[in-house]
Amino acid sequence: MSVDTVGPDVAASPADVVAELRRREVVDVDDSSTTRALYSTDASLYRVVPQVVVRPRSVEEVLAVLDASRATGVPVTSRGAGTSIAGNAVGTGIVVDFAKHLNRVHEVDVERRVARVDPGIVHAALQKVAAPQGLRFGPDPSTHTRCTVGGMIGNNACGNRALGYGRSSDNVAALDVVTGTGERLTIGRDVATTSPTSSTRSGCSRTGSRSARSSCSSASRSSSSWASPAGSGIAGGCWVRPSSSGSWSSSRWSSRT
């Protein structure tokens, strides 16, 4: 998913973008020809060479990436495992790879059947942690051995058990996201929408998760999600909980059958 930000009228060079990122102490920044070529494709037929590839290690670095994006006018594309067949993981500006460092399961609450995870956690790795507890994350796309939960949420991935467990959107309890304007939001069906950055940002409704998503015109657009998960506009985590039919975002778990 790409996020367009407001910046200077003159296009910034890759060197300018790298300089802005490093000025903000983003550590894992790569503009080598080899890396840019590797990240120019996903599972689709498209090939779009980015200016820079960033592999953030924290939400703070994601915020710094978006700040550099606004300063240079360069778009941001969030990337999980690159399993999209529609070109969702490629972009011309900064490609943010969440799978390299933000890939942990932070906790599994067995009683509530909720997990808190990073957006870059691979679906199969999450299942491996949940299985001993008699739990599973419902959706299971064919790429489950490599796709990330953040990418699944962005694409609303399903799988052959979707009729029983629902889509990814049916299994998300809450999300910790960052919009293109740099506002960090906690949104979800079971939590009150909050924004730790609201004192420095304006223009986004925080009366509920639906209005927060629809009122922030700069929030990451479509396709992949995550708007980093604190996912791209999205980054952060997911919480997972019991499904009737966790990114730091949250997703819902179902008992295994």
Write up this protein:
It is a single chain. The protein is α+β, with helices and mostly antiparallel strands and 257 residues long. The protein is built from seven helices and twelve strands. The chain has helices at 14-23, 33-38, 59-72, 123-130, 149-155, 162-165, 209-215, and strands at 2-3, 29-30, 52-54, 76-79, 94-97, 105-109, 114-117, 135-137, 172-178, 184-188, 237-240, 248-255. Strands 6, 7, 8, 9, 10, 11 and 12 form a seven-stranded mixed beta sheet that branches. Strand 9 and strand 10 form a beta hairpin. The chain is globular. The relative contact order is 0.19. The model is unreliable at 201-238 and 240-257 (pLDDT under 50).
Describe the structure using short key phrases.
alpha+beta; 257 residues; 5-stranded mixed beta sheet; disordered C terminus; 7-stranded mixed beta sheet; single chain
Shape: globular
Radius of gyration: 17 Å
Percent of residues in β-strands: 15-25%
Taking the sheet with the most strands, its summary is: 7 strands, mixed
Number of helices: 7
